[in-house]
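Lab manual, section 2.4: Encoding a predicted structure.

Procedure: take the sequence of the chain (345 residues), apply the prediction step described in section 2.3, and record the output as structure tokens. A sample record is shown.
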Amino acid sequence: MTRREGFILAATLWALVALTVVAAYINGVTRTNVDNADRAKRMLQSELDRRGTEATLLYLLSTNRMNHRNLVLESEQHFDIDDQILTGDGDATLSLASDPYQGLGEVAFSLQDETGLVSINTPSEPLMARALESLGVAPKIAAGLMPRIRDYIDKDHILTLDGAEDYDYAKADRPPPANWHLTTAMELNRVLGADGILDRAQWQRLRAMTTPRTLAAVNFNTMPPEVAAAILETDVDNLAEFLAAREEESLSRLDRIRELTGQYAEVDSGLIATVPSVFLRMTTWWQHGGPRTVVGITLTPSTPIGPPAAAPWRKEYRYSEPADHTGTLRQAATPLLGGQPGDPT
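Recorded output:
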């Protein structure tokens, strides 16, 4: 082989190497772009499914009735209401105690009657202190925090016993009390003495147990098991009989709750609700990642249809929170959410 032929061969090989590198680069860029486009498509579809699930739930809530702990789904609309219709089981039910369900596409959801939660804006009741104690806060610290929450949310600047007002916050170089209701459980961090009492995981559990609503009732029928265990000062494992009983009957008497759990609920008997309220929490999330979207709604069935246009519900608050995507989803037995009557709920 002559020197000229060797040069041509080497140049050809280098050209092939360069072309291979360029082709690999283009292939990598193309694959990345395709992956990004596919991911964007899936995220867009998941948001459409989440909004579709939310809209479907609002429709179901505003067009169906409730029994003592569930939304009752019926394929036939009733215009003449009688006792038989009100007490019947319907075609299927959706739990109002935060049970997770399969929604549209790859979206999951849960519904929660908020009288089954602990209000962060009623520190005069023992329920808030019980919720904190269940998360590991010492009883003395939890009890000592209640007057400080009262001073934080009341509209005056009068110091209550063991509370904290503007002077105390200024002394600690902290922003003054809001003198208004807490908007989320996380705002408790602004209450003097509350920051640092819970870690991140405990704050997430507290958010699931509490509501910013100022409630005048407590519903043991729609309480998530963790909330019931906190209020009754017991373990969730000890609530099997209680949870089974409320599937069949409305638990509205303290003596019946004590019979089922062996624990006394420190709640005014006149405040125990027998049916779900109009205050509901709707939570939706994509099953493969991302945060939950939490929406607080109030059902307003007597709202005039219009004009001006109005819906039979109000959205009172909305926020996002980290989500735990583990757990088995139940199937909502309605074709509007991909299920069929008779599917296990």
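Check your result against the sample. Residues 3-63 form the longest helix (61 residues).
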